[in-house]
């Protein structure tokens, strides 16, 4: 029987695949059948081992998405290696914490460059490749609770993730007719490097946990199902959603 979640034969690019949420998504896509291109500044060796253990191929690409310089090369290397590109997961992201009153221009630019500017231009290069290969494809942006809420002490992060939600909707409107699905996943509070400072602060940590109806922080494996769904033919008529995977945080 046809399995609408099967990703066999698909080539998926996952940015920020060295650790955390990107690593979890890369492994989930591989388990669903996709070959994976893992992009990060540092080693993606651990992710590579897991993808290969799942029986899929893995291409590591070392690139710094703080600038748009490596973007076309990421697409070119992917196509040279896998013959095509089908899925793009824009996951690489950073956060800087300081009171808004003291926030620096560098912390603004650094975060916006990785979390929003490179997301747009990588999506653009990827979509051009899809048009060239005359196929549809799937783009999954990693948004955040800060795509819906304000938060505190993270002004550039909130601006970037609110921007990611808007960009997801715009690209969905422009590209749905080209069989390109653009959607986002909004993770709640997950145990990764990104939330280390929050979890190190006993008061913030307890306050966050106390508001999560599921009663626990998320772990990267919790996002696999949503990522496979949005990467697969099961979601072919789903466009422009920002899907919370948050243990119920937003409905509290
Ligand atoms: P993480 O553990 O800090 O991982 C971030 C990933 O992004 C790493 O693989 C990192 O790899 C990569 N990265 C960072 N800067 C990069 C750059 N300039 N160029 C290329 N790759 C870069 O954080 P995470 O929690 O897994 O975050 C992944 C995504 O989920 C981010 O977009 C984050 O905003 C989002 N998110 C996280 C949470 C959470 O609770 N953890 C909640 C909502 C949304 P290298 O350091 O090797 O480059």
From TrEMBL:
PANTHER family reported in the protein's UniProt record: 2-DEHYDRO-3-DEOXY-D-GLUCONATE 5-DEHYDROGENASE, SHORT-CHAIN DEHYDROGENASES/REDUCTASES FAMILY MEMBER
Keywords: NAD, Oxidoreductase
SUPFAM superfamilies: NAD(P)-binding Rossmann-fold domains
Gene3D superfamilies, per the entry: NAD(P)-binding Rossmann-like Domain
Claim: NAD is one of the keywords in the record: yes
Protein name (record): 2-dehydro-3-deoxy-D-gluconate 5-dehydrogenase
EC number from the UniProt entry: 1.1.1.127
Pfam families found in the cross-reference section: adh_short
Organism: Telmatospirillum siberiense
Domain of life: Bacteria
Class in the EC hierarchy, top level: oxidoreductase
InterPro entries: 2-deoxy-D-gluc_3_DH (IPR011286), NAD(P)-bd_dom_sf (IPR036291), Sc_DH/Rdtase_CS (IPR020904), SDR_fam (IPR002347)
Gene Ontology MF terms in the entry: 2-dehydro-3-deoxy-D-gluconate 5-dehydrogenase activity; 2-deoxy-D-gluconate 3-dehydrogenase activity; NAD binding
Chain segments annotated as transmembrane: none
NCBIfam families, per the entry: kduD
Family per similarity comment: Belongs to the short-chain dehydrogenases/reductases (SDR) family.
UniProt catalytic activity: 2-dehydro-3-deoxy-D-gluconate + NAD(+) = 3-deoxy-D-glycero-2,5-hexodiulosonate + NADH + H(+)
């Amino acid at each position: 029987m046809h399995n609408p979640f099967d990703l066999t034969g698909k080539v998926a690019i996952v940015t920020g695949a060295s650790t955390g949420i990107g690593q979890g998504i890369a492994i989930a896509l591989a388990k669903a059948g996709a070959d994976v291109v893992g992009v990060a500044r540092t080693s993606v060796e651990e992710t590579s081992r897991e993808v290969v253990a799942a029986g899929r191929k893995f291409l590591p690409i070392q690139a710094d998405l703080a600038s748009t310089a490596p973007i076309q090369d990421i697409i070119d290397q992917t196509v040279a290696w896998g013959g095509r590109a089908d899925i793009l997961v824009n996951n690489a992201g950073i956060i800087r914490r300081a009171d808004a009153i003291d926030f620096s221009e560098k912390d603004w630019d650094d975060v916006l460059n990785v979390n929003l500017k490179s997301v747009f231009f990588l999506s653009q290069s990827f979509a051009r490749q899809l048009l060239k290969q005359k196929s549809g494809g799937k783009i999954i942006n990693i948004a955040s609770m800060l795509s819906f809420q304000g938060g505190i002490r993270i002004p550039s992060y909130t601006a970037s993730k609110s921007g990611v939600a808007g960009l997801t909707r715009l690209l969905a409107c422009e590209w749905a007719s080209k069989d390109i699905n653009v959607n986002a996943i909004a993770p709640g509070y997950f145990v990764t490097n990104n939330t280390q400072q929050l979890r190190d602060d006993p008061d913030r940590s307890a306050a966050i946990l106390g508001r999560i109806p599921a009663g626990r922080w998320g772990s990267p494996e919790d996002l696999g199902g949503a990522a496979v769904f949005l990467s697969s033919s099961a979601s072919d008529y789903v466009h422009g959603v920002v899907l919370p995977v948050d243990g119920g945080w937003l409905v509290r």
